[in-house]
């Protein structure tokens, strides 16, 4: 409580600082990004003369002003910071206008003269695939022998599944402030989940060594993946401005700019084939998955591989062949978003099982339960399930919700109500924890103990609301044996902790928490030695807890402050750095087999909805979740992640709809892109599995950031089930989001 | 041009038609956050206190779409002006329930909840109403609900008058001591915006400052002699053009005739309903304006004024084409009136998100019943024509009819011939056409619950 309190109190007072809240340097310049207004074409004329003369303008920069490499791509080098001659999406940055005020920079942008030669544009992934437009080769994961397996199946079903994208709607928009330092060094305050990416990419763009760029992040106002790779360009733009003008430069996108220019969750369109025995055992699953990757790679290939990894969700399927195609379209590069391709894969398999259940005339939950992972089952990527809680959480959910009774009640309700129908659906999840690029599974920490006994902790983790700093503070407090009040978690800074991985893949607390723990343990060893000399006992007999030194379990007079001071006086190193690298994980990229994940997170949720068949509207009534949080480090943090993740997932499946017209996004504001709000929120009941210690992570906990998002998928099927209680004579099209429009049209449109 | 900012008198040194949020942030009040700049998210929530006789009335409003002119002579409270040495009970509850994650929206929630207790009208509502206009993308709503319940348990102000309430809230630490002196400060200030010639008429500005970054030459209608209240006269209920949506929603006169309190719950969020005016909604001429559709379905008339001259016009005749009105240069909407007579009425609205969203289609119907027949039928639909659509032919057809499935079916056909929806972000033309049909059926099923519409 104490830890979370000190962490949240400044939030409630509006005293937590985000990039745009930092005191502005006196000679600050404001950047405005001039962007493409067409989805695809060649720039045939770009005249900046008038704009340059506009009041307040200091300088306008284009790709020609980039001293280093004009390149943002992290996995694949295919994305420029500033367009050289060909624009590939609406909102692609072409020029940077630097002026004394925001308004002046914006006004000047209206004077930029540009002409394009338009080229054909593609927005649909299947159309791109037909035309051979890919950002990378396809990727296949398989096990068993799918082709041979079909013969053994009693039921074979084929179908198509589609899902839309999703705008992150982090409340703090993309923002950066670059301040020139002496000797060509630049300090960047960036709202990023990946300070090292910002540092490395900016250095490359400016042709500087990484040690010339320092990135500092106190916290960010929401990320959800949207600031993993796509915070970089805004920071690089500011740094480029600072490089040329030797003045500080700030860029804070407004909401419309942010929605127009930045990437979102990937829309997918997939074909699948699933085969089962007549008893309901899934024998084979095959899918061709078309990912709308957008105009360049960004993280799309990594996201696509996670889709493939999670395309069997919590089920054991002996024969699997899933192929993903990253399709190049003329939309802003789609990017990471909570779940990182996992949700798309899980929606696909859930839709396939749902259809199989319909065809076979059995309840879906029966098929789900029959195929749940058991201990030792092997995933199609070669990893064996360890400490599977798939079945346990599913069964506890059935019990917790009195499922059979509830189902009966709903059937009765539906029989006695003509226009109001209720539906429910169970959504199990199994989510692998670790970056699927093994090398990223490392984190550093630096723990300093000042001579007054206060402690300062730096790690590579970015605090974005997921509570990673709360957890780290708790870990450090336990490891050092002192009151959390003495511990301060510092900003994330590339000069203090180097070569950080992005805070992503739910690994923030696992990796950085462990690194902090290791650093603390080293300090404790040194302090114990000091204490043992002082107290004339053996170091092994010493324990530091509750701010005091204990010998053989007995409290001594020697307190933390005195101990620290003695160590200082004895010239003991009170600063410790550590690296944690997740052990035992590997993935063979040729064979596509290995153990990519340190462990899996399991759980199951029951979603209950009511639909109004007269008006085509729905209410998500209640979601009950049984979740495997390991041994939770902080209950409130984990509860918040579970409830919040769920809600984002429901939003993705229901009301969050991106609409475009010829590559221009139409849903470019909060007035047109609707996310869940308070009245939309269902009653949420969360139960964490008891006695679920996880030996693979710090303090036996489990990662929590992403997995709960996928419980939201249950809302789709619950609405669908309610709908089928009103109308059954028409084939269901598995397409998300399931908006009120789709619902009403399904209810009343003719079969044709 | 002065106002009180938290505990200090401040001078406005920016154009009066520009955003209060931008002004506050430039002054260093960075607890007021910008996330949408269109009144949709509540991150920039402030309290606006206004002298009303012996009291200062507070409302939580979104500062992003509040023109600076509107704060002259008033009390503006930012989160910085709420903070005290100890957390307030509201802040405390949010912390205890973990109802904050990234923290960006949190000051806005605190302001909305604080404002709730400072307003004797709103405080009678469910506390959650106070925060329906605050977005939290981290999705802490479940925790926020738990916090709000705790807060509502702890702070009880329903029966206290203004000064007693202020004292009580200070005692509880909800607001700082200085609130005691605000009335005096404002009185001394005695600042009032002068009416300032020709320019852009500004009412609540809840759409104006969304459409424009700033309003050039604003003429604040609040300074003209246009009423903002609701009154009964000669068998009519009149609504002044400057009456706010929330005042209309809670009006006793109107609630005696129909369930407007509930109907307008689905019209924007409290901070917007507080600012948005009837007149603004009418002259915005949005084909989907909720209030416009509501009153069209009540067969309302409006009064237009130019100088001393007034004229009365049926609301349905006011709209001529997309955003075109029968409104002369210099003429303003003065008031709206409906007959003060009980009648059958129903309002329907379907949007992507039920609360705080623009409708895909909305519709209202009213009629009187004589024996088995319905009379004086008025039926309106929004979002399916260039104007807020009064379904003249359908209404005429329904007049003097005994309602049965056959009649409804014919009415649906006529209605379908009267509309011309287009596909846009609110839905496809096909969907909107279907919605009109469904909502008309919904009208009859609601108003004739015993009847089963067979189609």
TrEMBL record, chain A:
Q: Residue limits of the Aldehyde oxidase/xanthine dehydrogenase a/b hammerhead domain?
A: 13-120
Give the protein's recorded name: Molybdopterin-dependent oxidoreductase
Give the matching Gene3D superfamilies: Aldehyde oxidase/xanthine dehydrogenase, a/b hammerhead, Aldehyde oxidase/xanthine dehydrogenase, molybdopterin binding domain
Q: Which UniProt keywords apply?
A: Molybdenum, Oxidoreductase
Matching InterPro entries, A to Z?
Ald_Oxase/Xan_DH_a/b, Ald_Oxase/Xan_DH_a/b_sf, Ald_Oxase/xanthine_DH-like, AldOxase/xan_DH_MoCoBD1, AldOxase/xan_DH_MoCoBD2, AldOxase/xan_DH_Mopterin-bd_sf
Q: Name one GO molecular function term.
A: iron ion binding
PANTHER family reported for this sequence: ALDEHYDE OXIDASE 1-RELATED, XANTHINE DEHYDROGENASE
According to its UniProt entry, this protein's organism is Candidatus Heimdallarchaeum aukensis
From TrEMBL, chain B:
Residues forming the 2Fe-2S ferredoxin-type domain are 1-82
Stretches assigned to the FAD-binding PCMH-type domain: 161-343
Its lineage opens with:
Archaea, Promethearchaeati, Candidatus Heimdallarchaeota, Candidatus Heimdallarchaeia (ex Rinke et al. 2021) (nom. nud.), Candidatus Heimdallarchaeales
Going by the entry's taxonomy, the superkingdom of the source organism is recorded as Archaea
Which organism is the protein's source? Candidatus Heimdallarchaeum aukensis
PANTHER family recorded: XANTHINE DEHYDROGENASE
- Key words of the record: FAD, Flavoprotein, Iron, Metal-binding, Oxidoreductase
Q: Which SMART domains match?
A: CO_deh_flav_C
Q: Which InterPro entries match?
A: 2Fe-2S-bd, 2Fe-2S-bd_dom_sf, 2Fe-2S_ferredoxin-like_sf, 2Fe-2S_ferredoxin-type, 2Fe2S_fd_BS, Ald_Oxase/xanthine_DH-like, Beta-grasp_dom_sf, CO_DH_flav_C
Q: Does the keyword Oxidoreductase apply?
A: yes
Pfam families linked to this entry: CO_deh_flav_C, FAD_binding_5, Fer2, Fer2_2
Supply the name of the protein: FAD binding domain-containing protein
Q: Note the SUPFAM superfamilies from the entry.
A: 2Fe-2S ferredoxin-like, CO dehydrogenase flavoprotein C-terminal domain-like, CO dehydrogenase ISP C-domain like, FAD-binding/transporter-associated domain-like
Q: Name one GO molecular function term.
A: FAD binding
The record ties this protein, via Gene3D superfamilies, to: 3.10.20.30, 3.30.465.10, [2Fe-2S]-binding domain (1.10.150.120), CO dehydrogenase flavoprotein, C-terminal domain (3.30.390.50)
């Amino acid at each position: 409580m104490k830890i979370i309190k000190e962490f949240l109190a400044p939030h409630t007072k509006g005293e937590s600082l985000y990039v745009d809240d930092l005191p502005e340097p006196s000679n600050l310049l404001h950047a405005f990004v001039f962007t493409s207004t067409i989805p695809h074409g060649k720039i045939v004329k770009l005249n900046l003369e008038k704009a340059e003369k506009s009041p307040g303008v200091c300088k306008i920069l284009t790709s020609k002003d980039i001293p280093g490499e004009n390149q943002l791509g992290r996995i694949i080098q295919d994305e420029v910071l500033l367009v050289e001659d060909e624009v590939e999406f609406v909102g692609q940055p072409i020029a940077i206008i630097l002026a004394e005020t925001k308004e002046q920079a914006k006004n000047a942008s209206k004077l930029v003269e540009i002409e394009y030669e338009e080229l054909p544009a593609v927005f649909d992934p299947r159309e791109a695939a037909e035309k051979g437009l890919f950002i990378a080769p396809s990727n296949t994961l398989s096990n068993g022998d799918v082709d041979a397996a079909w013969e053994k199946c009693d039921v074979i079903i084929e179908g198509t599944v589609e899902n839309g994208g999703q705008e992150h709607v982090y409340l703090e928009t993309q923002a950066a402030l670059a301040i020139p330092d002496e000797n060509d060094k630049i300090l960047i305050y960036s709202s990023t989940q990946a300070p090292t990416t910002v540092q490395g990419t900016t250095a490359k763009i400016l042709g500087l060594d990484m040690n010339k760029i320092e990135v500092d992040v106190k916290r960010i106002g929401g990320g959800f993946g949207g600031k993993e790779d796509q915070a970089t360009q805004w920071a690089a733009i500011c740094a480029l401005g600072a490089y040329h003008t030797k003045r500080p430069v700030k860029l804070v996108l407004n909401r419309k700019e942010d929605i127009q220019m930045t990437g979102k969750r990937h829309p997918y369109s997939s074909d699948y084939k699933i085969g089962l025995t007549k008893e309901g055992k899934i024998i084979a699953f095959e899918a061709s998955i078309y990912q709308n990757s957008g105009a360049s790679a960004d993280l799309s290939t990594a996201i696509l591989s996670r889709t493939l990894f999670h395309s069997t969700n919590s089920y054991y399927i002996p024969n699997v062949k899933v192929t993903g195609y990253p399709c190049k379209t003329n939309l802003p590069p789609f990017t990471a978003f909570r779940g990182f391709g996992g949700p798309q894969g899980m929606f696909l398999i859930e839709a396939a099982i749902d259809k199989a259940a319909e065809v076979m005339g059995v309840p879906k939950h029966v098929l789900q339960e029959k195929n749940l992972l058991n201990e030792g089952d092997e995933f199609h990527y070669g990893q064996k399930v360890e400490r599977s809680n798939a079945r346990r959480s599913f069964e506890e959910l059935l019990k917790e919700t009195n499922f059979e009774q509830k189902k009966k009640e709903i059937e009765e309700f539906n029989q006695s109500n003509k226009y109001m129908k209720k539906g429910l659906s169970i959504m199990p999840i199994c989510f692998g924890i670790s970056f699927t690029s093994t090398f990223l599974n490392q984190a550093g920490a630096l723990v300093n103990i000042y001579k007054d006994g206060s402690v300062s902790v730096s790690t590579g983790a970015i605090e974005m609301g997921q509570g990673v700093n709360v957890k780290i503070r708790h870990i450090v407090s336990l490891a050092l044996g002192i009151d959390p009040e003495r511990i301060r978690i510092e900003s994330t800074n590339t000069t203090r902790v180097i070569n950080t991985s992005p805070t992503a893949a739910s690994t923030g607390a696992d990796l950085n928490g462990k690194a902090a723990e290791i650093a603390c343990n080293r300090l404790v060893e040194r302090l114990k030695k000091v204490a043992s000399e002082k107290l004339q006992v053996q170091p092994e007999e010493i324990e530091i807890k509750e701010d005091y030194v204990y010998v053989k379990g007995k409290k001594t007079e020697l307190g933390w402050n005195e101990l620290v001071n003695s160590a200082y006086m004895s010239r003991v190193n009170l600063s410790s750095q550590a690296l944690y690298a997740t052990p035992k994980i590997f993935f063979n990229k040729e064979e596509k087999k290995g153990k990519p994940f340190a462990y899996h997170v399991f759980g199951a949720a029951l979603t209950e909805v009511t639909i109004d068949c007269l008006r085509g509207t729905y209410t998500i009534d209640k979601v009950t979740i049984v979740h495997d949080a390991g041994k939770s480090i902080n209950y409130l943090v984990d509860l918040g992640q579970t409830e919040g993740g769920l809600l984002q997932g429901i939003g993705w499946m229901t009301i969050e709809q991106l609409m475009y017209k010829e590559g221009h996004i139409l849903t470019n504001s909060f007035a047109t892109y609707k996310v869940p709000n308070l009245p939309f929120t269902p009653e949420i009941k969360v139960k964490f599995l008891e006695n679920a210690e996880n030996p693979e992570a710090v303090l036996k906990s489990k990662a929590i950031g992403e997995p709960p998002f996928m419980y939201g998928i249950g809302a789709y099927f619950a609405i669908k089930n309610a709908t089928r209680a009103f109308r059954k004579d028409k084939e269901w099209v598995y397409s998300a989001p399931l908006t009120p429009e789709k619902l009403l049209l399904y209810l009343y449109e003719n079969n044709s | 041009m002065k106002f009180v900012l938290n505990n200090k008198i401040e001078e406005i040194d920016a154009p009066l038609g520009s955003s209060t949020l931008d002004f506050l942030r430039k002054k260093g009040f960075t607890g007021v956050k910008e996330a949408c700049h269109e009144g949709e998210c509540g991150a920039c929530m402030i309290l606006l206190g206004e002298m009303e006789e012996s009291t200062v009335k507070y409302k939580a409003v979104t500062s992003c779409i509040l023109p600076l002119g509107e704060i002259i002579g008033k009390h503006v409270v930012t989160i910085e002006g709420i903070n005290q040495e100890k957390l307030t009970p509201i802040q405390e509850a949010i912390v205890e329930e973990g109802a904050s994650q990234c923290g960006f929206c949190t000051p806005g929630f605190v302001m909305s909840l604080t404002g709730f207790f400072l307003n004797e009208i709103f405080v009678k509502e469910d506390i959650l109403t106070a925060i329906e206009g605050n977005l939290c993308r981290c999705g802490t709503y479940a925790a926020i609900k738990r916090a709000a319940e705790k807060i509502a348990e702890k702070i009880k102000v329903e029966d206290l008058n203004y000064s007693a309430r202020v004292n009580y809230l200070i005692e509880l630490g909800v607001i700082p001591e200085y609130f005691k002196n605000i009335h005096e400060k404002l009185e001394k200030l005695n600042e009032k915006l002068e009416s300032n010639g020709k320019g852009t008429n500004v009412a609540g500005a809840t759409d104006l400052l969304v459409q424009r970054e700033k309003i050039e030459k604003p003429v604040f209608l609040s300074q003209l002699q246009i009423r903002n209240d609701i009154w009964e006269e000669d068998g009519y209920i009149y609504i002044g053009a400057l009456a706010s949506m929330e005042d209309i929603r809670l009006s006793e006169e109107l609630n005696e005739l129909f369930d407007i309190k509930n109907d307008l719950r689905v019209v924007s969020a409290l901070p917007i309903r507080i600012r948005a005016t009837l007149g603004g909604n009418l002259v915005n001429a949005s084909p989907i304006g909720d209030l416009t559709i509501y009153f069209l379905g009540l067969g309302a008339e409006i009064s237009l004024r130019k100088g001393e001259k007034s004229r009365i016009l049926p609301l349905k005749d006011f709209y001529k084409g997309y955003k075109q009105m029968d409104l002369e240069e210099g003429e303003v909407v003065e008031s709206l009136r409906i007959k003060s007579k009980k009648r059958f009425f129903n309002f329907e609205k379907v949007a992507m998100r039920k609360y705080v969203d623009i409708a895909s289609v909305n519709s209202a119907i009213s009629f009187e019943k004589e024996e088995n027949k319905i009379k004086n039928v008025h039926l309106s639909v929004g979002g399916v024509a260039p104007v807020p659509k009064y379904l003249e032919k359908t209404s005429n057809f329904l007049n003097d009819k005994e309602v049965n499935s056959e009649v409804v079916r014919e009415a649906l056909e006529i209605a379908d011939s009267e509309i011309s929806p287009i596909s846009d972000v609110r839905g496809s033309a096909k969907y909107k056409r279907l919605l009109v049909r469904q909502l008309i059926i919904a009208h009859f099923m609601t108003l004739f619950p015993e009847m089963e519409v067979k189609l």
